[in-house]
Design a protein that fits this description.
This protein is an alpha/beta fold. The protein has nine helices and ten strands. It starts with a strand and ends with a helix.
């Protein structure tokens, strides 16, 4: 099974970013100062790379090598640009895209990828920041499906929505705040389904851009589902309607 490649040291990580490597996440030692760190932080901000400031003990657990206070993980997959995803969409007879907004739990992410691949999703869109990293847990939970489905990273989900709508793809958000039931929606047309995190849901500005907002009917006392389970229900309603 393919795994992440790790890069150690400030200069090495800077060079990796400048050479357009698919950096999944950068870990920086808390309190680290200096000109090079400033350059690295500027590059991280410019390229919207997922990053965390962590104590040196965390870095030591991540690697036994001389990390010099910085470790970067290169994704085991190549992320698509939005224009590359457009080529995938053009080849589809009936485009079916999944957008994940702020889902940062790796196991949920992996489980969603697995179900998405099996249910015929053409591609997944995630945001550079606030998204779960693609690590060994993600790969394992996806049962390898991550290598069989295109994943596109964008700086802003809203930009992806504008692009998809320009391609006449209907954007449908899943939210318990809706009055419309999932079973009253037409999923036979080209669609992009948006799922949000369990903690935050879908960003309000993203909801406002959606063509439709729909919910799952719930009759228990809890009134919530694990996001990977909820996503599976939505994906297979699309499958059911399209059979």
């Amino acid at each position: 099974m393919e795994k992440n490649t790790e890069i150690y040291g400030i200069r090495s990580v800077i060079e990796a970013i400048n050479s357009s490597k698919d950096i999944d996440k950068v870990f920086i030692q808390t309190g680290l100062k200096g000109k090079l760190i400033g350059q690295l932080e500027a590059l991280i901000r410019k390229n919207k790379i997922n990053s965390s400031y962590v104590p040196t003990q965390k870095l030591d657990r991540l690697s036994k090598k001389n990390h010099q206070g910085v470790i970067a993980r290169i994704s085991p997959i190549k992320f698509l640009e939005i224009n590359e995803l457009s080529s995938v969409i053009e080849k589809s007879k009936n485009p079916f895209i999944l957008i994940l907004d702020q889902i940062n739990d790796v196991r949920n992410f992996g489980a969603i990828i697995r179900t998405a691949e099996i249910s015929g999703v053409d591609g997944i869109i995630i945001q550079n920041s606030s998204s779960a990293p693609i690590n060994s847990d993600t790969i394992k939970t996806s049962a390898g499906a991550i290598f069989n489905i295109p994943i596109c990273k964008v700086n802003h989900i809203k930009d992806a929505i504008y692009h998809l709508q320009s391609l006449e793809i209907s954007v449908i958000s899943a939210s318990e705040k809706s009055n419309k039931n999932i079973y009253d929606v037409n999923f036979k047309k080209p669609i992009a389904l948006i799922m949000g995190s369990e903690q935050k849901g879908i960003n309000k500005s993203v909801l406002n851009m959606s063509d439709e907002i729909v919910k799952l009917p719930m009759y228990g006392k809890i009134q919530s589902l694990n996001v990977s389970v909820a996503c599976g229900v939505f994906l297979y309603e699309v499958v059911r309607q399209r059979i």
